[in-house]
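## retry 2 of 3
previous attempt timed out at serialization; input unchanged, resubmitting
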Amino acid sequence: MKIKDLEKLDNEGVENLSSKERRRFLQFGLSITGVFLGGSILSLSSARKVQAALSGGNVPMTEFPYSPHYTMVIRENHCIGCELCLEACRSTNKVPAHGYRTTILERSIPVTEEQRRRVFMPILCNHCNHPPCVRVCPTRATYKDETNGIVRMNPDKCIGCKTCMAACPYNARYFNEAIRAIDKCNFCYDTKLKESGGKITACAAACPANVRIFGDLSDPESEAYKLIHAPEKVIWVLRPETDTLPNVFYMNA
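## retry succeeded, writing output
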């Protein structure tokens, strides 16, 4: 089954997305099903079922740019706003009081005329496949790891111009006064992934509600892969209109 054939099955509500964006998501086995919140959130679902139906059950293996291809799935409606993930990130990665590698946004939504419910959304670097921060950095201090796709920082090369901060559509970077360089989430590459063999990040390990699922997008046996490709689930990414192709996905459990 060719990608252009699957493109025809896309929902008509995604006309504001370029054909290139749709093809890239389809290459990851994800089919576009709609756009929410005025185009700011893209709804995705597994394309494997569609592929199987149209190809007589002969579903080709998905190819990924990296191996492992690290990703995180955020089960948004599990988040209770306890901020244990923030504390774990700060202590594990020595994040100063004025900084952050991850944060939690909060909003209040109406349930009835008299009642409202608080909803929490964890935010972190999306480790984009097409990262604007890398593209604008004049010294190449921020770069995409060629082995696993993590967007990383080399503080020795950083001149503190903050261009990458302005380019990031997720506001996921801050200026670390102590080292006079930009800092951000790197999926605990230096502090957790090496010692755990790439299995877990500090925020995911600390979460009591199992909100953050870290895994390998190229491994069909990983929990993250299974959640993203579950046919009955709807998955979305933030700011799809920026064409960053993020590797952090959101869903309701």
